[in-house]
Specification:
binds N-oxalylglycine; 8-stranded mixed sheet; Jelly Rolls; 4-stranded antiparallel sheet; binds manganese (II) ion; alpha+beta; about 220 residues
């Protein structure tokens, strides 16, 4: 798959693309205005030291592994986040409802965090599902770097079947099935994004939300 299909921020189109390809780009989500507001919010929170080093694994294997992932994160439902984060979560949840009506995936809730990758960091090849949980079904990453240049690195490399596709983390979103393997190539400058997931009900699976993820 040399390029991903690109669709508008419309549940019908996204559902069709996910069914056919397992992944797509979403143009215009979030809007340019909301992208700027989210970027400012993320930068403010990062400067205020509200973002924390992300960990890998759960329970006994939970660990800080800068060699695996170098991002700093903060959940968007944290009280320190601004209005932009609340707007984004509302829109994401509306999208979840729309996808659920079409794909019958039992998507019960959304979760999302800001992610800041300091210069030189990335995230090694992984899946967004824990080995012991299939709660995460759909992954959605929104990019907050409108001035990103081709030489800045930091691409998302998504592995689909036998091939892979690279996506620059400029703006808009990419949506993919959480079972797909992907990686963040080292960024040559600070890289801001939101990583979000649509999940099956955690009460059904008895698994609390956690920042950590398995490889
Ligand atoms: C993640 C992730 C991709 C990206 O946070 O799990 O894979 O492009 N992010 O930021
Ligand atoms: Mn991931």
């Amino acid at each position: 798959m040399p390029v991903l299909p690109e669709v508008d921020a419309d549940a019908e189109a996204i559902a069709a693309a996910l069914s056919a390809h397992g992944a797509c780009r979403i143009a215009g989500f979030p809007t340019i205005d909301l992208t700027h507001a989210l970027r400012e919010d993320a930068r403010r929170l990062w400067q205020d030291n509200a973002l924390a080093r992300a960990a890998v694994g759960r329970g006994g294997t939970h660990a800080l592994r800068g060699d695996i992932r170098g991002d700093m994160t903060l959940w968007l439902d944290d009280a320190r986040c601004g209005d932009a984060a609340r707007d984004y979560l509302r829109q994401l949840d509306a999208l979840r409802v729309g996808l659920n009506q079409r794909l019958f995936l039992g998507l019960a809730e959304v979760e999302a965090h800001y992610a800041a990758y300091p210069r030189g960091t990335g995230y090694m090849r992984h899946r967004d599902r824990f080995a012991d949980s299939d709660a995460r079904v759909v992954s959605l990453v929104s990019y907050l770097n409108p001035a990103w240049q081709p030489g800045d690195g930091g691409k998302l490399r998504l592995h689909v079947g036998d091939s892979s596709v690279d996506i620059a983390p400029r703006d808009g979103s990419v949506c993919f099935l959480s079972e797909l393997e992907h990686e963040v190539l080292p960024a040559q400058r600070e890289r801001l994004s939101i990583a979000a997931w649509m999940r099956r009900s955690s009460s059904l699976h008895g698994l609390p939300r956690t920042r950590a993820r398995s490889l």
